[in-house]
Task: inverse folding
């Protein structure tokens, strides 16, 4: 078991983590970044990003993350393809342990662990993962050109994914558990304009079927009522768009989280309830969930950590 000390430990590597790396390395704090299981974060699963300032022609998500990562490396951030699995924030320096048992003692910590797509929890989602089940239409939609697919969810994400898929696929079912779409007016209108999107209201998916990949889904309508009915739809792709959950499990009991598990931050700053621990990006942001917002909060967390260390005479 190796042990080391660092002034700034950054846990996570999306736009928030890498931006925090750029700022803290330029401030000569020699940050150590643990990239986690998905280096580059959620953007590595998208295709084109059109709304990040500075790319007038758009940019591929993985390419953009590589740019931000390279920028952090340029100023000396140390980036490791490892995962922090355990933290103890009860006293400073904070003890943080990685998957191989190595320990980093950190004077300050910036948490930027992001969020992950939710699944329904069906055994068949696991069985057919990569064989027709996906949580990212922009990543995988291409494989379903001229085929039939379903999207689960009634929020803005589900509508956006359904609209995107309707440009590629023959038919898109939108499986909505309530009798209305929670999505914004503009999205609902766009959905209504698409002839090849069929909304299945009051419907839940109970399972998937198929030989070597998804060939269909079992659906129940009006579950638990006297109108309950069961039927199957034939589809080749099954897309989840039922929201995200923050990747904050390892911090439970160590810092304050809200009811959904998002890290509570001061708001004016990125400070958590533990002095010296800061949070940036989607793990602390149930509202905006945008790359540019995450990058901005990574910058704020870096400046907050720098000030914290200065105030504690450790620069
Ligand atoms: P939301 O939480 O808004 O919507 C989740 C949807 O999934 C709801 O319709 C919900 O149903 C449904 N759902 C949740 N769990 C289940 C389940 N177990 N089975 C079936 N359905 C389920 O998440 P989004 O990701 O859509 O949006 C998150 C935020 O991001 C929102 O604020 C949204 O406005 C924003 N956003 C904005 C966009 C834009 O403006 N372009 C694009 C994408 C997101 P129910 O309604 O019954 O709870």
Result:
């Amino acid at each position: 078991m190796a042990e080391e000390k660092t002034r700034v430990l950054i846990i996570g590597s999306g736009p928030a983590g890498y931006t925090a790396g750029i700022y803290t390395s330029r401030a000569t704090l020699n940050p150590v970044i643990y990239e986690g299981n998905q280096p580059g974060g959620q953007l590595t699963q998208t295709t084109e990003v059109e709304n990040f300032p500075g790319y007038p022609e758009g940019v591929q998500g993985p390419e953009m993350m590589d740019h931000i990562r390279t920028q952090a490396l340029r100023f000396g951030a140390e980036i490791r393809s490892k995962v922090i699995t355990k933290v103890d924030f009860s006293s400073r320096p904070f003890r943080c342990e990685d998957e191989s048992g190595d320990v980093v003692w950190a004077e300050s910590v910036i948490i930027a662990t992001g969020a992950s797509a939710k699944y329904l929890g069906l055994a068949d989602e696991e069985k057919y993962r990569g064989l027709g089940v996906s949580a990212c239409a922009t990543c995988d939609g291409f494989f379903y050109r001229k085929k039939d697919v379903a999207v689960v969810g009634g929020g803005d994400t589900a509508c956006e994914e359904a609209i995107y898929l309707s440009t590629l696929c023959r038919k898109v079912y939108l499986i909505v558990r309530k009798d209305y779409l929670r999505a914004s007016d503009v999205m609902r209108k766009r959905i209504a304009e698409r002839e090849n999107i069929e909304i299945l209201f009051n419907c839940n998916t109970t399972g998937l079927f198929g030989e070597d990949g998804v060939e269909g889904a079992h659906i129940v309508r009006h579950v638990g009522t006297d109108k309950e009915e069961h039927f199957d739809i034939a589809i080749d792709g099954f897309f989840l768009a039922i929201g995200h959950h923050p990747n904050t499990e390892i911090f439970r009991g160590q810092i304050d989280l809200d009811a959904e598990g998002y890290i509570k931050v001061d708001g004016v700053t990125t400070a958590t309830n533990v002095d010296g621990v800061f949070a940036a990006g989607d793990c602390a942001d149930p509202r905006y969930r945008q790359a540019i917002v995450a990058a901005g909060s990574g910058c704020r967390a870096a400046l907050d950590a720098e000030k914290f260390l200065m105030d504690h005479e450790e620069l």
Remarks:
- Residues 120, 152-158, 160, 177-178, 182, 242-243, 289 surround NDP (CB under 6 Å).
- The longest helix spans residues 291-311.
- The first strand starts at residue 3 and ends at 11.
